[in-house]
């Protein structure tokens, strides 16, 4: 068996098998060229052009797909899908190239399937005149199709920068492209400005991307300049909506190009089900023949603008578009900014015009050559007639004319074919006039070819005509990012009352009061105990104090709600604790008012303003949260009017009002002596007292330090 195994170096295998495939995908499938088309688009449109669908009536899409298979060897499904995207009905392009009839789906819908090709009809749109205007005049190269039975153009001689007017996306091997679309008028104006002055500021002409699905472009000048200059960058587009006060609903009428109705609705439904959004009572798709519409019914007293800001943040009602202007230039992929793309397009367009003019010059010079021969004959027409009449054999007529009048074989053939009825005075005069006009036209075209500036003027005139004829208003409106109502992140967090349970085994439960009222006994592990239980709100900050003198900070809304029947969240899973570190106390706050008190076995108490733990940045961990050189025996929160109970190891205790203890601004302060201790007897515990019972009144301290009394 081993004799049949061919051993080959993997690099050789990749070079011989994978590299040709990769190059084929890059060059012949996924990336567009300077005319703005991928090969599949070009083959389809050229087939439709050859079917005379630019001027004739629509034909069945199935007919077009079948004819295209002569150029494109892929299946009919792939060809028809390509065709769908180019249609006016699908709405994927700013300038659709196919005038369609029937259901071609919608670019903004994932589930709205297009009809089968046998049910739909299509022809080329009027703008395709600008694609094929010079294709019969040798403006571009032709190559053989896949079986060498037909010729197809390598590029289409487009008269406007289509590469920037319509969106284009593709994934090749090891590279991709994502080109956003711009408004036709703006691109034409920018190209004209560039042709007049290569250093022109294109930003004055190209305001922002423009998508066929509309929406609102969030304009940021630095982002826009980066995209125009480098071809890379990203920007945000958000949906358009109106609030119907009478029906108390929001109607979304335009969405970003990168999303679909279904994905938006699915996400909103998910947010409602998980309780992250509670202001919505219903959401539905009301898209009809009038266009896109998503309706969101609101609950009473809901602020629609605040809700939409929340939806912009949590759904694709606001979405990002990442630009990657990767285009094939002379068969090589290249990422370019808009200026460089316009430079390449202008070079391509100039080349097309020069080829067209040379083709027409050759054609006119041929005719000019024939007419010169005719002119010589017409000087002595009677002699020419005599030669024809007296020549015995037909094949000798041309050589005799050539010999007598000193003309070429081509000229003699032309003269010999002239009909007898044309040998009149009027015909002769018309021929001589045409000779003069041909000489003028040839001279004019040669002058054009010799002057790049004059060719630029021709391109400018073409762009002006295209702009005037096919101009459309912007679909995507522009909103400066400074005008966007930036809501505080706190607005997006739902606030509600919760009760927290913190256990010795490091579990934390956050239970809504509504859930708490309907629940039974709190479930904890068999050998676990609840260390702290108190009420808070979902918008609070959570402080976690550890035995290593660190404090960890979390947002309480980031911790999921629990039920009484659950253990809750295990804090070491969500907090990056040090080795052998444990949380020993927790506290929540919204305004960082009041004090946090640390009691030590030395009888000292450190009273630290809670404000010392507030940070302007979102730091997750603060070191030296409290004094580390003495053993901490209690951590409590309180205000000046509250009381704390200090207990010694021998049972003596003292009740001290927090206002009697002076505050320390340093978090790791050792505090002041509040309870007197001995060498053998230290402080055992510190806890908060919520009401002064009769037994506690006996140990109430009138001054500090206090020796405490036996309880």
Protein architecture, described:
- This protein has 711 residues and is α+β, with helices and mostly antiparallel strands.
- The chain has four domains: 121 residues, Topoisomerase II, domain 5 (Alpha-Beta Complex), CATH 3.90.199.10; 77 residues, Gyrase A, domain 2 (2-Layer Sandwich), CATH 3.30.1360.40; 118 residues, Topoisomerase, domain 3 (Orthogonal Bundle), CATH 1.10.268; 222 residues, Neuraminidase, CATH 2.120.10.
- 33% of the residues lie in helices and 23% in strands.
- The strands form ten sheets. The protein has a four-stranded mixed sheet.
- Strand 29 and strand 30 form a beta hairpin.
- Helix 13 crosses helix 14.
- The chain is elongated, with a radius of gyration of 42 Å.
- It starts with 9 loop residues before the first helix and ends with a strand.
- The mean pLDDT is 90.
